[in-house]
Amino acid sequence: MKHVTITVIYEANALNRDEKIGGNILSIKKLSRNGQTFSFIGKPALRHYLFATLQKAYGEDWQPAPVIVQGEVVQFDILRADILTHAELDAFGYMYTIGNQASITRRAPVGITKAVSLEVYPGDMAFYANHDLVRRGIAQGLSATPDPYNKEEHQSFYKASFTIDLDVLGEDVWIANGYWYDKEKKILRLYISPLQQATLKNVKQGSGNDVYEVFEDKNENKKRGIIKVDRDRGRLFVSKELMQLSEDERQKISFKVKFLAENEKNQKEDMKQQEGEQEDAAQEEEQGGESQKQQGKKTKKPNIEIFEEYFDMDSVDVSGEKEEGYWFPFAKEPEFNEKKKTLRISYSVVKEVYCKNLEIKGVENTIHPPNGSEQPTDNAPTKQDKQPPIGQITVERLRSGKCRVTFRLSEEEKKKRLHQLLEAIKNGFAVQSSNELNSLVPLFLVAAVVKVPSPVFHPYLHIAKRCDGTVRVLGLADGLKNSWLVKNAKGGEGKTGEQ
Q1: CB–CB of 449/4 below 8 Å?
Q2: pTM above 0.70, yes or no
Q3: Which run of H or of E encompasses 368?
Q4: Which stretches does UniProt call biased (Basic and acidic residues) (predicted)?
Q5: CA nearest 379: which of 391, 397, 367?
Q6: Contact (Cβ atoms closer than 8 angstroms) between residue 172 and residue 165
Q7: CA-wise closest residue to 201 among 68, 316, 342, 97
Q8: Which secondary-structure segment (H or E) carries 373?
Q9: Which of 7, 200, 301, 372 is deepest in the core (most CB within 10 A)?
């Protein structure tokens, strides 16, 4: 697929501020080259201006993606948003960390360079003070004095380039640990962290099918807490008494060990070891001690760990009693064994997507949904069934036991987003910094379709002043010789080197 590159030249002020100098001096961002200093507008600022312009111009099509705080890190919340629902994530990429585990990363298909001045920064600085506010204060009989400050200033021509990778725009791929598709509710659940399970013991069915009661180990008449299932929201409520809250800086909850049962695997291993241990246990007992196997044998009860950003503290009413506890999402519905009096809880960081249908493809019999069934059909996630599909989601089962999940925007939506991006870059950005309006409207623009998403014109373009004070752009002819261009003007020979 072809790609797009655009290089623009603005006449603007360097309003992308840097750290303060000496307390009351506002500096601008600067670079040094060959002993000279050039001001620049950083890539994050250009990204912000571009997105803010898209928001104002196209409203609902470019709504800000939701964010989440994990520890001290603020990041996009891809559990509530993805490239299909939010164009911002599609165009500018993201990185989402999952607890202490790996992260899901999307490379931005819209590449942006710094906007570096084409003229040397001469060291200009301006003096300002809040004289108007002081005048008002004096008029009201207040004792007011001006608060002076200095600002570095630079008005110049700035060069920046944008590339759009059309192979990446409109498509995103995740590797998930599993999935489950609820055909009735049309909800696809993706397990983006490893599946965790914990089995509670001494559990009885409570009032209704959605409530389970957990009792003391030695006193089955003493209830210690409840588990409430909210199937519509895919969430569990667990009594505070059943959970332990870590004292780490980044808090997490897990079940108290005394309420957990050993898993079947450990029980089978215990039975296999039992015969061998009986022989040396008698010998060690005669010597007045435990066998080495018994001393080293520690059966670990499977548990779950849920970080603070994935659970909520709340209270619920059950049979007229108020119960305090935690809400968190479940990976699949709890499995209750009435005979063994156990309840298995499955947890994962879950991404939920509304899908009209789901397409399953790939290697057979290597991975199965947690409910043990498959629904292989076409896919088209929408907000409502009556609306046209915004894209497709395909789940491909891998031999490793995981699955590849592909989010693919519809061609119509992809073309619309591309058109909106190009219009915003061509017409200029809405920019206001330090309470001052800036002009990032291109005075010069060159765009081309390229074989690879490279800013092929960027290194060649520079400016020169004519004798009459006007400015010309040089280097375009050299840029047109680049072989990445899909169509070279005049076979690679530019007509003129100035515009």
Answers
A1: yes
A2: yes
A3: none
A4: 266-275
A5: 391
A6: no
A7: 342
A8: none
A9: 7
Torsions phi, psi of 392, nearest 5? -135, 150
Assess contact for 75 and 52: CB atoms under 8 A: no
Q: How far apart are CA 415 and CA 417, in angstroms?
A: 6
Bridge partners (DSSP) of residue 4 are: 164, 449
- With beta carbons less than 8 A apart as the criterion, state whether 155 and 12 touch: yes
Q: What is the pLDDT along the chain (499 residues), one digit of tens a residue?
A: 689 999 999 999 877 776 666 667 888 899 999 999 999 999 999 999 999 999 999 999 999 999 998 877 899 999 999 999 999 999 999 999 886 667 899 999 999 999 999 999 998 988 888 899 999 999 999 998 888 888 888 999 999 999 999 999 999 999 998 888 888 888 888 998 888 999 999 999 987 778 999 998 777 778 899 999 998 888 899 999 999 998 777 789 999 999 999 865 544 444 444 444 445 544 444 444 444 444 444 457 899 999 888 899 999 887 778 889 999 988 888 999 999 999 999 999 989 888 876 666 653 322 233 333 333 334 444 444 556 788 999 999 899 889 999 999 999 999 999 999 999 999 999 888 777 888 899 999 999 999 999 999 999 999 998 988 889 999 999 999 999 999 754 454 444 444 4
CA 440 from chain centre, in angstroms, equals 29
Q: How many CA atoms lie within 13 A of 304 on its CB side?
A: 27
End-to-end CA distance of the chain: 30
Integer Cα distance of 345 and 296 in angstroms: 29
Write out the two tokens for 56: 């104002």
Round the CA-based radius of gyration of the chain to a whole number and report it. Answer: 31
Q: Which helix (H) or strand (E) holds 86?
A: none
Burial label, 304 (beta-carbon count in 10 A; 0-12, 13-18, 19+): buried
Return the DSSP state at 469: S
